[in-house]
Amino acid sequence: MSSFLAKRLAGALVVLALVSMMSFAIIWLVPGDPTAAFLDTSATPEQVARLRRELGLDKPILVQMVDWYGRVLRGDLGHSILLNRSVTAAILERLPVTLSLTGFALVLALIGGIAAGIVAAVNHNRWPDQLVMTVALFGLSVPDFWLGIMLILVLAVQFGLFPTGGYIPLGDDPFGWMRSIIMPAATLAIIQVGFIARMTRASMLEVLNQDFIRTADAKGLKRAEIMLRHGLPNALVPILTVGGIVAGALLGGAVIVEQVFSIPGVGRLIIGGILSRDYPVIQGGLLFLAVIYLMVNLAVDVLYAVADPRVRLE
Amino acid sequence: MPETSPILDVDGLTTVLTGSKTTILENVSFSLRAGEVLGVVGESGSGKSMLALAMMGLLPKAIRTASGRISLDGEDLIRLPADQWREKRGRDLAMIFQEPMTALNPVMRVGAQVEEVLRRRRGLSSSQARKVAIDLFHQVEIPSAEARLKSYPHEMSGGMRQRVMIAMAFAADARLLIADEPTTALDVTVQAQILDLLRKLQKERGLALLFITHDLGVIADIADTVLVLYAGRVAEVAPVRQIFDDPQHPYTKALIASIPKIEGPRDRLVTIEGNVPTVGTMPRGCRYAPRCPYRRDICETEAPPLRPVTQGQKVACLQPFGFPQLQEEAFL
Fold first, then answer.
1. Is B257's Cβ below 8 Å from some Cβ in A?
2. Are B25 and B47 within 8 A, CB to CB?
3. Which of A94, A202, A214, B187 is the most exposed place for a label (fewest CB within 10 A)?
4. What's the mean pLDDT when you consider all of chain B?
C-alpha cells in the first residue's frame, strides 16, 4: 500500500514539474507584451524599457525561470500588475469560492449520476433506462454558458427564485450561500451527470451479469440490498476514474460559469488576467488549478485501493 | 428410508425459452425427503443447471417456467409471488455454485458475506452473527477461522472459497440444499475433501440435498437416489445401487460404460457417439434415439413416458432392458 502510494506520488510530482514549466513558458508562447497593457501607444521606448526592467522581463529567460521557481517554491507567485497586489493572496482569497462551487457541483454530479446510472442499469432496456439515457445525452450536448444564461433568465429573472449572480460566503450566511451557489453548481453539474450516469450504467450492467450477484440473489437478499451492497461497490472503480476526470472538467468549467454568474472565483481571476495580459496571475492561477487537479487524481488513486482490495496487490 | 412426506416435490416441471415453445426442461418430476441425497447426472446441455436454478427461482430472464409444480413443504413455489419466493431463498433453500472463483463478491470480506446471511435472514445482531460465522468456519474446516473472516476471496484458494460458499449456504439453516457441480472446478484431492465435508454436514443436519454433477463417480459416492437427465427430460430415476447394477435406459448404460476402468487392459476410452441435441433441434420422438444403438422406428416418432419398472426405479424408454412386457406394450 505504501509503495503503491509512493509510486503515485512520484508520478504526480513529474506531472507537476511539467505543468509548472508550461505555465512559466506562457510568457514566451503568448504574443504581445505585458507592458502594452499598462502603457498607451504614445509611451516612449524609454518608458517601456523601464517598465520591462521593473518587471524583470529584460533578464535572460533562464534567469527569469530560476527566479520564478525560487519564488514559487516559497509560495510567492509574483505580483499582479493590474491588481497591484500579491498573486498568492489574490488566489487564496478566491480559492474557497471556486472550491465550494466545484465541490458542490461534484457532489451533485456524483449523486445524480450514480443514482440515474443505477436506475438505468436495473431497468435495462425499459423506459426508465431510455429516459435516463436521453436526458444524459441532452445534458452532455448542452453548452454550459447557454444553460447558465437560461437558468438565470428563467429561475432568477422570471421567477425570482435565486439571485442572478454574485456569491455569499458559506461562513456569512449558509442559506444565502446555498441560494447563490445552487444555479452555477447545477449548471456545472448537469453536463457531468450525463457522463457519470452513462459510466455507472455500463459498469453496473457488467457487474450485474456476474456470478456473485446470482449468489447474493440465492441468499434471498432484497433487490436494493443486492444493488447497493454487491452491485455498486464492484462497479465503483470505473466510476471513480470518471469522478477524477469530472473534477478536472468542473475546475475548467468553473472558469466560464463564474463569468456567467459573476462569481468572484479563481476562474474569473484567470480570465481577467488573460484579458489584461497579467502574466503572474495567469501563471499562478493555472498552477493552482493544476495542483488541485493533481491532488484530486491522487485521491482517486488512493480510493481505488479502498474500493477494490485487489488493487493493493500491484 | 422411513416414510416421511417429502420436503421437495417437483411435478411435471417444464421450462421454455421466453416467447417460444422451445422447451429447456420437459415434464421433470421427482421428490426429495429430509436426509436424502438426490444426485442429478447429465452431460453438458442436459439442463441440469437449469433445473437447479428453477428450484431457486433464479432462472435467467430468457427462460420461464411454463407448467408444473415445485412444492417445498407442500407450498407451490411457482405460484408464490416473487418476493415470497425470495424470502424462501437463503432461509429454506440454499445453493452452492460451481465456480467458487466468481461466486463470491471480490470486494467484500468473506466473513461479511457469511454474516450478511445471518443478519438479514436470521435476524442476528452483528456480534452474534460474527460468533456464528466463526463457528460455521470451524464446521466447514477452515483453519484459523477467526482470522479468515477478514480475508478477501482473492486471498483464498479455490477449495477454501468453496468452503466459504458452503458455510454461507448452511448459515441460514436451510432444509434443502442445492449443489450445482460444487467440486467440478477444484483439484481432485480438494474435490474429495469438499465432498466428504458436504456429506458430513448433510448427515449431521438431516438435510435434503439435490446434488448436480456430470461425474458418476461422485454420484456413487454421495447419492441415495439418482436422476439421469437427458436433453431436458428425465431418462431414468432409481436408487443408486440399481443405477449402477441394473440400468434400464440405454443412455444410463452408456454413461456407466464410459467410466474408465482401473482393472483390465487399457483400452480406448468408451464414449457415446454423437452429442446432446441442442435447443431447437430436438428429435421428435425419444431425444436419445439418434444416439441409441437399440433404436427402433417407433423411437423416432413416439416420446417415451416415464414408467415404473421396479420398486423405486422409473425409466423413460420404450424398450428398457430386462422388461420385455413393457416392450410388448410399447409395440402394441
1. no
2. yes
3. B187
4. 87
CB contact (8 A) between residue A218 and residue B56: yes
Residue A203 vs residues A121, A123, A240, B162: alpha-carbon distances, Å: 9, 14, 11, 27
Backbone angles phi, psi at B307, to 5 degrees: -125, 145
Rg (CA), chain B: 21
In chain A, what is the straight-line distance between the N-terminal and C-terminal CA atoms, in Å?
Answer: 9
CA distance B176 to chain A (A): 13
Residue where the block lists cell 454421495: B222
* Contacts for A39 with CB less than 8 Å, ≥ 6 apart: A47, A48, A51
Using beta carbons and an 8 Å cutoff, which residues of A are at the interface with B? 210-212, 214-222, 225, 229-230, 233-234, 307-310, 313
Nearest by Cα to A308 from A219, A260, A241: A241
Q: What is the mean pLDDT of chain A?
A: 86
Sign (positive or negative) of CA dihedral A82, A87, A91, A94: negative
For residue range A119-137, list pLDDT tens digits in order: 999 999 899 999 999 988 8
Q: What is the distance between the alpha carbons of residues A51 and A45, in angstroms, rounded to a whole number?
A: 10
Whether pLDDT at B330 is above 60: no
The grid coordinates of residue A99 equal 472550491
Give the number of C-alpha atoms closer than 13 A to the C-alpha of residue A9, restricted to the C-beta side.
6
**Placement of cell 444410463 in the chain:** B252
Distance from CA of B273 to the nearest CA of A (A): 33
According to DSSP, residue B278 is labeled: P
All residues at 6 or more sequence positions from A294 whose CB lies less than 8 Å from its CB, including other chains: A12, A15, A16, A19
Q: What is the 3-state secondary structure (H, E, C) of B27-78?
A: EEEEEECCCCEEEEECCCCCCHHHHHHHHHCCCCCCEEEEEEEEEECCEEHH
Length of chain A, please?
A: 314
Element housing A116 (H / E) = helix A87-122
Residue to substitute from A219, A236, A306, interface B, most B β-carbons within 10 A: A219
SS3 B268: coil
Q: Is pLDDT of B60 > 50?
A: yes
Which value, in Å, is the radius of gyration of the alpha carbons in chain A? 24
- Which of A211, A225, A229 is opposite residue B97, by nearest beta carbon? A211
> How close, in Å, is residue A211 to chain B by CA atoms?
5
Write the CA distances from B166 to B56, B142, B191, B300, integer angstroms.
16, 11, 13, 43
Contacts of A204 (CB under 8 A, 6+ apart): A117, A118, A121, A122, A227, A231, A232, A235
For chain A, say whether B173 makes contact (Cβ under 8 Å).
no
Higher pLDDT, B185 or A227: A227
pLDDT digits (tens, 9 = 90+) for B233-290: 999 999 999 888 888 888 998 888 888 777 777 677 777 877 788 777 788 888 888 8
- Could you identify the residue written with the cell 461479511? B112
DSSP assigned state of B6: P
Spatial separation of the C-alpha atoms in residues B149 and B267, rounded to whole Å: 49
Q: Please, which residues have CB within 8 angstroms of residue A126's CB and are 6 or more apart in sequence?
A: none
Q: What is the crossing angle of helices A232-260 and A87-122, to 10°? A: 130
Q: Is B138 on the interface with A (CB under 8 A)?
A: no
Closest in B87, B90, B105 to A212, CB measured: B105
